[in-house]
């Protein structure tokens, strides 16, 4: 699923610089992908004739498969961050978000 998120960043961010790191917490594994691109309004609904279901599908599949989640934050003119949270066995995603 991360392989689907990373190219989306590079294509839409209008940047060639992105950082990806991993982190293990007591309750989850986290994958953080960050860029310094143009950013965007995460709440804006696009009306450009395209379906824009990719991230929604990725979030749903991740939740259905392992209880994980993707949190996307963005600041226009500053860049975007996506945090993928994968709960460890026996943990629910509600117990893993920091």
Describe the structure.
The protein has 98 residues and is of the alpha+beta class. The chain has a single domain (2-91), classed as Heat Shock Protein 90, CATH 3.30.565.10. Helices cover 26% and strands 32% of the residues. The chain contains 2 helices and 4 strands. The chain has helices at 2-13, 54-66; strands at 18-24, 28-35, 69-75, 79-87. Strands 1-2-4-3 form a 4-stranded antiparallel sheet. Strand 1 and strand 2 (28-35) form a beta hairpin. The longest helix has 13 residues, at 54-66. It is globular, with a radius of gyration of 14 Å. The model has no long low-confidence stretch (mean pLDDT 80).
Task: Quickly describe the structure.
By secondary structure, this protein is α+β, with helices and mostly antiparallel strands. The protein is built from two helices and four strands; from the N terminus they run H-E-E-H-E-E. A hairpin with a 3-residue loop joins strand 1 and strand 2 (28-35).
């Amino acid at each position: 699923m991360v392989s689907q998120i990373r190219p989306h960043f590079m294509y839409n961010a209008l940047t060639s610089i992105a950082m990806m790191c991993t982190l293990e917490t007591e309750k989850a594994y986290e994958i953080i992908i960050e860029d310094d691109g143009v950013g965007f309004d995460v709440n804006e609904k696009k009306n450009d004739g395209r379906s824009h279901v990719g991230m929604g599908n990725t979030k749903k599949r991740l939740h259905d498969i392992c209880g994980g989640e993707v949190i996307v934050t963005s600041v226009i003119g500053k860049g975007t961050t996506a945090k993928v949270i994968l709960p460890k066995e026996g943990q629910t995603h509600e117990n893993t978000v920091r």
